[in-house]
Write a structure and sequence with these properties.
Length: 252
């Protein structure tokens, strides 16, 4: 596996290289770059299997790289800041390591990549079955998600909720993993089982097991605490026009 490291701190870059070589002796670290400019120049002429990418570089943030060159491989982001998680997963991100991270964190990230690769292989080798029309009364049973350049299937029982953010729709699993799906919240809603999922507002469709706590608010609204907790500082509420239907849904 070929790896590119984009990191402007020499000590951090050296530690990461040493860790990777200890964990996976077959890894080939092809380059270590420290700026947006050098990364863009290099990526115009080269491809790798995996990139470890610091977010804050000497001449800007690494998201600027994606605006200037197409990156097709998975990216593991490294940073001392936790506010970029959602943005990272929109840019080929498969994992997000908060500094200071240790050997175990890197090993888990590499294992996550291996699991992704294995799941793609298994799905590719699966026997072809006839395509049957979808019954929306029962709802979808699985969802195809993007993981960098990889695709994966998530079973409906693994889904905690769906969250719309900007132009993207995220599927959040019960174990806290976040995936982009190629739908809008409006197009997805009629495909879901009305028994299992409810659209509480313009941003969230939730499953019953994801609702940890509920609180009454004014104007018949309901505040919801979700589990896992979304990576957003907004208060999540059932919109006023959906509140009565939501209470009926809880009693199904």
């Amino acid at each position: 596996m070929t790896v590119l490291i984009i990191e402007d701190e020499e000590l951090a870059a050296n530690e990461l290289q040493n860790t990777l070589r200890q964990l996976e002796p077959t890894i080939e670290i092809v380059a270590v770059l420290g700026t947006v400019k050098s990364a863009v120049q290099w990526l115009k002429d080269h491809q790798v299997d995996l990139i470890f990418m610091d977010i804050h570089l000497g001449d800007g943030d690494s998201f600027q790289i994606f605006q200037q060159v197409t990156i097709k491989c998975p990216v593991i982001f490294t940073t001392a800041y936790d506010e970029y998680t959602m943005k990272a997963f929109k840019h080929q991100g498969i994992d997000y390591l908060l500094k200071p991270f240790d050997k175990e964190d890197v090993q888990l990230a590499l294992q996550k990549l291996k699991n992704i690769n294995d799941s793609v292989i298994k799905e590719t080798e699966a026997p072809v079955v006839p395509v049957l029309p979808l019954s929306y009364a029962q709802g979808k049973e699985r969802f195809m998600v993007n993981m960098g350049t990889r695709l994966k299937t998530i079973l409906v029982g693994e889904v905690a909720y769906f969250m719309a953010d900007d132009k993207y729709l995220f599927l959040i699993t019960r174990d806290g993993q976040s995936y982009i799906i190629e739908e809008t919240i409006t197009s997805l809603e009629p495909q879901l089982s009305t028994k299992d999922f409810f659209r509480i507002n313009r941003k969230f469709i939730v499953s019953l097991p994801s609702i940890k706590e509920m609180y009454k608010l004014s104007r018949n609204r309901v505040r919801i605490i979700l589990d896992p907790i979304p990576e957003t500082d907004m208060m999540i509420t059932v919109s006023e026009d959906r509140a009565e239907a939501f209470k009926t849904w809880l009693n199904l």
